[in-house]
Amino acid sequence: MSVRGPLVTVGMATYNGGQYLTESIRSVIESSYSNIEILIVDDGSTDDSVAIAQGIGDHRIRVISNDLNSGLVRTRQQIMEEAQGTYLAWLDQDDIAYPNRIFSQVAFLERHVKVGACGSLTFHRVHEQSGKEWLLKSRHNPKGHDEIFAQMPFLNPLSFNTATMRMSAFRQNNLDFREEFGNTLDYDMWSRAADVMELANIQDYLGEYRVHSRQTSRGPALDRMLQAAWSVQSEVLGRNLGVLIGTETDHIHRRMTLAPRLLVSERDAVEVGAWLRFLAETNRDIRIYQERAFENALSRQWVLCLLHVSRGVGFAKASKIAGASRSIAGLRNRDLSQGALSFLIGEGLERAQKLIRGDGNPLRIRH
Questions:
Q1: Cα four-point dihedral sign 182, 188, 189, 190
Q2: At 198, which helix (H) or strand (E)?
Q3: By CB atoms within 10 Å of each CB, which of 48, 67, 149, 328 scores lowest?
Q4: Do 45 and 17 contact (CB within 8 A), yes or no?
Q5: Better pLDDT: 211 or 67
Q6: Is residue 365 part of a domain?
Q7: Is there a single domain that holds both residue 194 and residue 251?
Q8: Whose CA is closest to 309, among 263, 260, 358?
Q9: Residue 340 — very low, low, confident or very high, per pLDDT cuts 50/70/90?
Q10: Are residues 158 and 297 both part of a single domain?
Q11: Is there a single domain that holds both residue 76 and residue 186?
């Protein structure tokens, strides 16, 4: 059924994305929500991306073709400036929107007028070099604003491929993408938006994020993303908790959030625990984060770190450390149980077992 309502801009930044572009655009055209414009800004592609977009033949498609490649940040910023919709729904050139995505998010934002942006759960469509494809459920992103805000110092809690923004909220707060954060621009944006507006995640799967060998978030680009993510976390801790930790590459916060696989010893666990205790006590003093939500986020991070430590010290020793969570990390058994439950619901038992075996990768900057 075709549904009309507020105009929604679906923003797509393209650069040499012809391989999957038709499928991505058609996933929007086939949406159950009809009052849309599909704004495609091509960033100087040398393939047939522009011809593909223009050749689909839907009057709702608007293509802007840049002569020179200016990079993802400037292209997405251009989309924000050109968008005509009340809402801006993001979709990358290789991702898929499910038919009910826009309808669900518009309905949610119309009901929740204080929410400035909402995401959802998403599948990962993984392409193997053999040609095989398979779907992987993403973690369960936190639902409400308190939980999203509390997890911001540790991870990116909104999946960009299913994020929809209320444009008036971002324009009124002069929120733009920042060049220095590169491909981690969305994490930076959400971290600043969470300070001035409510964010939310719909607990339905509304799209697919494609994982394939041609993505830019690999190799040296991934290293740059990790550094940018660390900068986001450093800014969040400084801005909200008054914790100034600089950009030292060996800082425990960086290791426990971006490279927990490096945590292998009892000493590592004690250092993580001491840092978590410090963050909890700091928040109890200034009350920037809702206490229960923040301590749940701390506990979740503690469980993740202990799973990695167990690979180095053994599961029995890691369990003993977990039993001393109150003295080491200042976390009560109730908090630890909630953190473990949150982790297992979000990541799944199979993934936790992989982490213990050493063949899991906890990193998710862009979802």
A1: positive
A2: strand 198-211
A3: 67
A4: yes
A5: 67
A6: no
A7: no
A8: 263
A9: low
A10: no
A11: yes
Decide if 362 is inside a domain: no
Q: What is the pLDDT of residues 221-278, one digit of tens each?
A: 888 889 999 999 999 999 999 998 865 667 899 999 998 889 999 999 999 999 999 9
Segment 284-299 mean pLDDT: 93
Instruction: Flag whether pLDDT at 43 surpasses 90.
Output: yes
Does a structural domain hold residue 2?
Answer: no
Match 């986020």 to its residue by tokens.
297
Parent domain of 130: 8-211
Which residue, chain included where needed, has tokens 């909630």?
338
Nearest CA-CA partner of 28 in 111, 113, 85 = 85
Question: Domain for residue 264, yes or no?
Answer: yes
Question: Smallest Cα–Cα separation from 233: which of 341, 157, 331?
Answer: 157
Radius of gyration for the alpha carbons in the chain, expressed in angstroms and rounded: 21
Q: What is the pLDDT of residues 81-97, one digit of tens each?
A: 999 999 999 999 999 99
CA distance 150 to 53: 40
Largest CA distance in the chain: 64
